[in-house]
Each structure stands twice: as C-alpha cells, then as structure tokens.
Amino acid sequence: MAKKAKMTWSGFSLQPRKEMPQGVWIQCPQCKETLFRKKVKENREVCLHCAYHFRIDAKTRISQLADEGSFEEFDAMLTTSDPLNFHFRGTTYAERAAQDREKTGSIEAIRTGRAFIRGRRVILAVMDPSYLMGSMGEVVGEKFCRAVDAAMEKNLPFICVSCSGGARMHEGVISVQQMAKTSAALARLDEAKGLFISVLSDPTTGGVSASFAMLGDVIIAEPKALIGFAGPRVIKQTINVDLPEGFQTSEFLLEHGFVDMIVDRRELRGEIARLIDYFGKGY
Ligand SMILES: [Zn+2]
C-alpha cells in the first residue's frame, strides 16, 4: 500500500525519505554512493562523499552536541491533553502519538534540558522529527518556554535545534497560539540580555520557522536545509508568481540575510562553543 502523504498546514510535502535507513550498507540520496552505515554514523550522520546531512532524531542530536553524559532532561514526561479530541482518516491523534512514541521512544517532538557543550553550561532544546514530524503543539510550546525560563534564571545560553513540519494541526488554534507564546518567552530572554542561538536543520517550516526558529541572536543553518513558512505550491497559488530556484534553502537565505551562517554538522559543536565565548556567556 502506498504511504499516505504526511499532512501539514504549510503545504510542504514532507516524506520521511531522508531519515537514515536501516542496514549495514546505505545509499546516499544525494550522490547515490553506497556507504558503510557505521562510517556515516561516526561522521555525525553526514555522507562521506558529498556531505549530505541525513535527518537525525533528538537523541542522536543531543549525543552529538552535548558533552558525554551531561544532558539532564527537563519535563521528560509532559504529554498532550489532546484538546480537540482530534481524529483524521480514521485515526485519532492519541493513536498516532502512541504509534510514534512506540516507534521512536520519544514522548514528544522536543527534548529540553541542561547540558555542557565543550565544557560550557547551556540550556538545550532539540526538536525531534521522528515524532509527529517535529510539529509544535501545546507540549512543545510549554517545554520550550520552561527551557527559556531556566536559561533566564541561571543566566545561561539557550541553544535550540529546530527540525519541524510546523504547527501541529491536531491541536488546532492551540498549536498556533504556541507561536506567540514562544516568541513572548524569547522577548523576555532578550530583555534580560540572554543569548539565544538558533540552529535550523532540515526541515524548519511552518509555524516554527515563523516564530522562535527565526528569533535567534545568531541563526545557524545546516547546509542545504529546507527552511520556509509555506510550501512552493501554496505560495504560488496565493501570489501567482514563479518562485526562484532553491529559494527555501539555507544557502538562499544566507545570501538574502535571513540566516547568519551555514555550519557543517561536524563543526557545529565547536562553532556553538566559540559563539558562547564570543558573547561572554561561557560559565
Ligand atoms: Zn552523498
């Protein structure tokens, strides 16, 4: 049976095609080279030939960024109240969430906590694309805001790695409300002269791109990530113009001033540590 297209509000076609496939050997979707999976894993899930960045879950991302064993998770068991009692195509929201929980071991689409990055204390938030496409609902918003509060309270840098299909339509307007809620939390952090480094990975779209992901004091993107609010088809239908090639990639956004730098995943940890020191926030 053909896989159902994943539903999004923003009009992106987000298939799970870029996740690391299982097996000893894998094929790079970009350069088509056959790769030894273990070697790719050692290379931070980046292709050894063409530097294609595979999509990674929150657990893997945390293991790549945080000093070994330093991550202490906040609010790990916070779960949605399913405010709309939502169902779609014969499946309830609760059932879909339970499936992803079982498949991925993730309770929600974001993990937050405190950690060290190369010896610097940080508050870290990492979105999880393996859980309901990293979509933002009430729990993502709440965990994000609590993490921002922790960063303010302890005067620590706040680092967030986004990877999301946008607002979670299963929660209706409550998911959209999280855009304002997370943005307000970041405004308070800004007033308190806190540091927010936002890392955008593939994909950062919809309500997440239109709220906290683009509010970093420094915005870093991974190479060739899809970053944008609405999908090309939706934009074309709305404003009726042809869109330039590659207009929603990291490279295009860097050229047009929407992101500050593109950093290869293998350099990300060092670059974040360097920025923390540059802003005088290393403790
Ligand atoms: Zn490749």
CATH level 3 topology? 2-enoyl-CoA Hydratase, Chain A, domain 1
CATH class: Alpha Beta
The radius of gyration computed from the alpha-carbon positions, rounded to a whole number of angstroms, is 18 Å
Number of helices: 9
Bin the helical content. Answer: 25-40%
Q: Which cofactors or ions or other ligands sit in this model?
A: zinc ion
Domain module tally: 1
Task: Sketch the major β-sheet.
Answer: 8 strands, mixed
Strand content: 15-25%
**What is the distance, rounded to the nearest whole angstrom, between the alpha carbons of the first and last residues?**
53 Å
Low-confidence stretches: 1-5
What report would you give on this structure?
Its EC number is 2.1.3.15. Pathway: Lipid metabolism; malonyl-CoA biosynthesis; malonyl-CoA from acetyl-CoA: step 1/1. Belongs to the AccD/PCCB family. The chain is 32% helix and 19% strand. It is of the alpha/beta class and 283 residues long. The chain has one domain (56-278): 2-enoyl-CoA Hydratase, Chain A, domain 1 (Alpha-Beta Complex), CATH 3.90.226.10. 41% of the residues are buried. Zinc ion (ZN) binds at residues 28, 30-31, 33, 47, 49-50, 52.
